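Hi all, long-time lurker, first post. I run a small reading group and we've been trying to get comfortable going from sequence to structure in the token notation. Rather than ask abstract questions, I figured I'd post a concrete chain and ask someone more experienced to write out its structure so we can walk through it together at our next meeting. Sequence below, copied exactly:
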Amino acid sequence: MSRLDGRRYPSDLTNNQWHQLEPLIPSASQDGRPVIHDRRQLVNAILYVLRSGCPWRLLPHDFPVWQTVYWYFRRGPREGIWDHILHTLRKQVREQQGRDPEPSAAVIDSQSIKTSAVRGPEKGFDGGKKIWGRKRHLLVDTQGWLLAVKVLAANRSDLEGAKQMLAPLNSLFPRLRHVWGDSHYGGTLVGWLREHLGWTVEVVRPPKPPSLQGLTVSQILQQWEQVFPPPSRLRGKRWVVERTIAWIVGFRRLARDHEGLPQTSEAFITIAMSRLMLTRLVPFFP
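-- Answer (accepted) --
Happy to help. Here is the structure in token form:
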């Protein structure tokens, strides 16, 4: 992609990455006006906003005008473009890792995050985290790749958010049968998932630390190894969703919820995870 000074932004797609992504982007309609902006320019502009965290109106002038870029961005959720890219790239990454394209198990968690002064629905106060804002409910596979996301007010419970996120997934993941989660996903959710989706839920609780008062260093280490053994299969899968959350907030636009609509936040999270998977498939430096 050409620039005014001949240079590229770090957020731009490389040629090989664009060749991988291009078949997943709908081509321009032949019935409308002649195409002015290249699709690669539009995608790079969206990635620039996501990575830098800048407002749409501060998009650099060597990109298409921000109104055009924003229109194409908003078109993605309406037509399912971003979800299609996410699911296709996830299957390709899993195949590259030697796994079945469809996951058989997943991990669920939520993240409460502060919002900006932008007005919009679905905002509330999370009394446990002491955060005013929204809550991101995430479902990932055992490698940490995103399966589904739902953004709701922070005062909504994890149980309510999980049901809203998981209800539409009845036929989307045919092999999925098991879900790991923390103690918030026990109780009535176990029966609800078994009834509506046929999935089982395994609640992973952290072990209770022992009392170390009056013990020597060697005794403390011995007690620690007994309570915290090497990561088992349960705890070894539970942490991957925390890593996914860390991946997401690495994009400055997602370090805080700046969006007026929760659907916009979901779209940015979907694009961020697609960008990470595309980089895994086609690294910058092969």
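A couple of things your group might point at:
The beta strands are 105-114, 124-126, 131-141, 146-153, 178-181, 200-203.
Residues 89 and 278 are 7 Å apart (CA to CA).
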